[in-house]
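Quick log. Single chain, no ligands specified.
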Amino acid sequence: MTRRPGNVVVVGTGLAGLRSAETLRAHGFDGRLTLVGEETHLPYERPALSKELLAGKRSPEQLTLRQPEFFREQKIELVLGRRVEKVSPRRRTVLLSDGRELVWDALVIATGARARRLRGLETPPGVHYLRTLSDALGLSAELVRGKRLAVVGAGFIGAEVASTAVSLGLDVSVIEPLAAPLERVLGAEIGMLLAKRYRAQGVELRLGTGVTDFACGADGRLRALELSDGSEITCDIAVVGVGAEPAGELLGGQEIETDASGRTEYENIYACGDVASSWRPSLGRRLRMEHWTSAAGQAAAVARTILGEESVHDDVPFFWSDQFGLRLQYVGFASTWASIDVDEDGDTFSVRYLDEDERLLAALVANRPSELAALRRELAARSRTPSREPELEAV
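-> predicted structure:
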């Protein structure tokens, strides 16, 4: 874009959408700015849904990222409870679910991701997915001491929900088709280290098995989970945490590919946050990261680029998870690795993921926050020469 736009529409009121809008204003954008969200809630802090909110330590109001007066003062038009049904790149419009059409000079798609569903299974009362504030409030009302909770999936969401439920006095079972919790991200060895921790906290962990059906009582409510090994787990409540799917259908697919500044293949259309698979020069590949710091960094880069301040988000990837008394913090990125180096000491441990030349690709620390800064420096120093980015086909 050769000149500053006069009218920007941002689709999505999660962290990425909010951060892109507020960065536009902070960097001097004085045109019309509209933030559209499908949810009826003000933008809120999503990572707390599976932890502090479920545990009753924070209220929904305490998760709100910006109060109504912020949007009034910043002259950001907030359109809540409306879904964007269609984007027209040629006409530069978006069609809302209430029939309204918004015109834009620049469009930011920050629609995030939605919970992946169990295919082919109807969801009876008592079965929950957790992605939104409304999801969390519905689940929270059912987490009552003494009830039996089954968690399907031992990923980050599943582990965090299980941890919270144990602290509330529920009996918890976790069902995971892989051989270890978080095996795809952290590897089998570290997954089994976490499995030992889960079991020590009283969790029944069923590994290497999946869910084939929900069994219901005469009232139609969940009674048990039927498993692929032929057994059943009796439960009052179930939470399905089997990952998330990027919500990129506005541009005809799931994840939306972007360059390092958030540009899509469509002129003047940008994407950021969980929906975006953005080019990372230091990694020489596109990467979709479903984490807070990545969403914030991409959104800020998109806003500055829209205003002509060419900006790239290529920080060392980082995410964290709180579960069963562990603060897990992960830096770097490793889809594969040649070896790992584990340093364990009671309730703390660190893991280094190494390539074939024993160079650091990524690291995980548990209850060792003081080690993060040095790991970040090591990863930043060893980043390869930025790779040339493949061209996005302009539309």
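The chain has nine helices and 26 strands.
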